[in-house]
Amino acid sequence: MNITVDDLSGPEIAGFLEEHVRQMRSLTPVESKHALDLEGLRRPEVTFWSVMDGDTVVGCGAIKRLDAEHAELKSMRTAPTLTRSGVASLLLEHIITEATAMGFTRLSLETGSAEFFLPARRLYGKFGFAPCEPFADYRPDPNSTFMTRSL
After folding, report:
1. What's 140's DSSP letter?
2. If we measure between CA atoms, which residue out of 149, 51, 42 comes closest to residue 100?
3. 130: containing domain
């Protein structure tokens, strides 16, 4: 597997992300959905990575710069056929390393609070993320769990 910065111009990553947004919409009320669309992920404050297995996208993730020291983890996704195969751990380790190299000292995230998101919350906990209050423009939401860690 290869992790690369992606400019989001390819049709395969567009389809992968479209599936991600569709799945999040099916699981989360629209007012609690915070997944960025392609245009949101192409903004200059976002760095996006794809995990490739040959020519196939098997995972993705991004960070969004909130300020000089704080970034938000966005759009973490593993291909459904590879859930719990190590792709997410590999990518999250890569993103934490890259965020540190970029000079960030804090990395935060929002994920769902429903049972479906429990494996994600466990993964983030394994990597040192702990529950926190809403950050940036987020507000308290029973459908959201907020987590953060120092880098």
Report:
1. -
2. 149
3. 2-150
